[in-house]
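Protocol step 4 of 5: obtain the predicted structure for the target chain.
Materials: sequence only (see below). No template structures provided, no constraints applied. The aim of this step is simply to have a reference model before the mutagenesis design in step 5. Sequence pasted as it appears in the construct record:
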Amino acid sequence: MRQSLTYPLNVLCVTGALLVGGAAHAQSGWSDAAPLPSPRQEIYATTHDGMVFTAGGLAERASAVRDDFLAYDPQTDSWQELANLPAPRHHVTLSTLDGLIYAVGGFSGAFPNWKPEASVYSYDFETAQWSALSDLPVARGEHVSAVVDGRIYVIGGRVGGTVSAATYKEHRDTGRVDVFDPETGIWSRGVDAPTARNSAASAVIDGRIYVVGGRQYLGQPDGTAVNVNVASLEAFDPETGLWSVKAPMPQAAGGLAAAAVGGKLYVVGGEQWSPTRKVFAEGWVYDPATDEWDAMPDLNVPRHGLAAAAIEGRIYVFGGATKTGAGDVPAHEALTVEP
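Step 4 output (structure tokens):
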């Protein structure tokens, strides 16, 4: 049974067509849902008590950094505004653990002045407030976060090449893993991922963390650098402490989104910078039992830097940008993948 939540501040009541949770039949394609209250990109999502949450992001064609914290209710197809993040952030990951939502890392500043941040905040629904926790050991953004067995795993992303690094070109990709134990408030070093990457997506299936897609910022012979997508899928088992390499996704994509439903991994959207610029509508589903990928319905609105979350067999995908780089939109689509 859903518990009632207290949502202070403004109730936005951004409403579209009513969505009925737990649809009896799978849909053949994506349907529109209530758009975000305002356009944004480079966001992540988490779920709690039947709701979807997102925070921060880039707006106004990536020239502004947001600090708002939003909740989406699938039952009423509406958004609500909660207490703002303590500081504006984009590429800040959200994770839910023991009834709290954790906002980890991310960047401050608009492009190209992206400064990696080490901040970690937790949101308490009882007090409707954010609290500052122990900082990440290394400031980072464009990473992924996942929860397994009461711990938060922060994987990959971009870290400063120097202590004072404050622009995108000064960052470097990493496979570093840091693990947070909320009971002790202490960070520990995890087992690094095989692939250093940024702008990947992740989900947890049967206690394993799956990290897929993303890109690497690679130097070129002429002295320039370019984002090159990676298709690799890697899974981490916290029980054994081992990473395993799985079948790569059929189409390499950076800035994609992922969700797990029914023991399968669903990935959608993303972008490509090299050799040509593209924004993807395609979606793919991975079955760990067979180590195989299949196509799923394309998004109605191709985009990258979007967020995804799943509740009761239904995937919700919102925000993102329709052009490589900047182009934030409020678009929100939903797809039933499991009756």
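Step 4 remarks: The chain has a mean pLDDT of 91. The two ends are 19 Å apart (CA to CA).
Proceed to step 5.
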